[in-house]
Amino acid sequence: MTSAVGVKRLGLGAISSLPIESRPLVRPDEIGSGIVHLGLGAFHRAHQAVFTEEAISAGGGDWGIIGVAPRSTGVFDRMRAQDNLFSVTTLGAHTSRTRVIGSLSEVRHAASDPAAIVALLADPRIRVVTLTVTEKAYQLDPVTGELLADEAVAADLNTDRPPQTVPGLLIRGLLARAAADAGPLTLLSCDNLPSNGRRTHGLIGAGLAFGGFTGAPADWIHHNVTFPNSMVDRIVPAATPETLATAARALGVEDQAAIAAEPYTQWVIEDRFPGGRPAWEQAGAIMTDDAGQWERLKLRTLNGVHSALAYLGALAGKETIADALALPGMEGTLRRLIAEDIAESFRPPEGVSVVGYGDDVLARFANPVILYRTHQVAMDGTQKLPQRLLHTILDLRAAKGDARWATLAVAAWMRFVQGTADDGTALPLNDPLADRIRTALADTSSEPAAVVDALLHIDSVFPAALVADDEVRASITSWLTELTRHGAAATVEAAGT
Ligand code: CS2
């Protein structure tokens, strides 16, 4: 295919002209499909798609991925125009390497043909379904993990309309699979939820009960579908025109679906796959019988610190995570958050030091060529806060620690959602609970104690034990007072130097 400006576009026909080191390890048209993946975003393409390509190349098997875009058509259209090929540029501080990935055997768009996705989940060739749909798409209460069956989910479960929500698609798909007795399946969440497999299992159970699906189909699902927990990790910023330009230079053809990512990548997966799986361990994944400690380590250390940096950095007017980390005192503040709060809040996996892991995380955040925007991490805070920061506080308080640094991060979120950076610039509030936050703030004065009180009342974010803890409330209020009076940059400088 040739674009308007005459530059050739990536596609099967372009593979032989790619530099050898950039060619895919497998070809989309030569692998059978065994996986359906929901969520075609940058993270999936730079993480599971890469692991799976290496696993197929090393271990074989019909494990091509049918990538499903739930809603938007952008990536879907671009991938389809390129025979499902796309490149990942790995950006080190001094070197970069671009390689085309060939593990997506097909791409589909769920919103335009949901029935086709339901049918795919009932197809015996498919033995694994993976998900990167972001926290909010699970429609679970972030604190309790209970299914929040809003109108759309209810309509998916109670009527015959083609499903429009992720819970609806999954449940309709599993029911169709049960009816077809199409063989065992694994539903593998790759989102940053706590106990993501257990939560997905709970979601399916609650959805089946809500829709009144009991008896044989529910029993079939119970006996034939597994929900392993997994920990996923790679920093993958949203693609920019620069990302596409870098890929085009390296490949010699245009790649409209190009993404860039950091060199680091990790995947820890509980090994419960009754229908089989790709040889992911041959691509470096850790297969285990309990991913819980890895998950906590990553959510609290990497994601918790990422969120702290995002809110403090955005308040101080910093556009990227690396710029936020360069604020005077920021690194010192975060080292204290890691050593005094996070490391004291849980037991890490055997042989891992939380402080050492945290040092690596800070080095990754400092990578100057990874332009990860503070506003990107800051979005959907209500869905992220519990597992990233609030569980740290709760566990510390149970052990009688004072959670000084984690409460600073919560205070920074509270100032961020008030919508104004320290220099008066407006801040975006992208959050499924944005209305709830706005209403809570509209009914109160802007005094820090009143703001803290109003926001702590959002019970699907703040667990009751935390709300009832006067010392935690006092610490958040004291930090919010500092942030409001002096701004994030000065607060962090005083705290961390
Ligand atoms: C980030 C994550 O945007 C965010 O909220 O904290 O996407 C983070 O980059 C990944 O979890 C890294 O594995």
TrEMBL record:
The keyword Oxidoreductase applies. Gene3D superfamilies: N-(1-d-carboxylethyl)-l-norvaline Dehydrogenase, domain 2, NAD(P)-binding Rossmann-like Domain. InterPro entries: 6-PGluconate_DH-like_C_sf, 6PGD_dom2, Mannitol_DH, Mannitol_DH/Oxidoreductase, Mannitol_DH_C, Mannitol_DH_CS, Mannitol_DH_N, NAD(P)-bd_dom_sf. Belongs to the mannitol dehydrogenase family. PROSITE patterns: MANNITOL_DHGENASE. Its EC number is 1.1.1.17. Keywords: NAD, Oxidoreductase. The keyword Oxidoreductase applies. It catalyses: D-mannitol 1-phosphate + NAD(+) = beta-D-fructose 6-phosphate + NADH + H(+). This is Mannitol-1-phosphate 5-dehydrogenase. It comes from Catenuloplanes nepalensis. GO terms for molecular function: fructuronate reductase activity. SUPFAM superfamilies: 6-phosphogluconate dehydrogenase C-terminal domain-like, NAD(P)-binding Rossmann-fold domains. Pfam families: Mannitol_dh, Mannitol_dh_C. Residues 293-481 form the Mannitol dehydrogenase C-terminal domain. Residues 34-281 form the Mannitol dehydrogenase N-terminal domain.
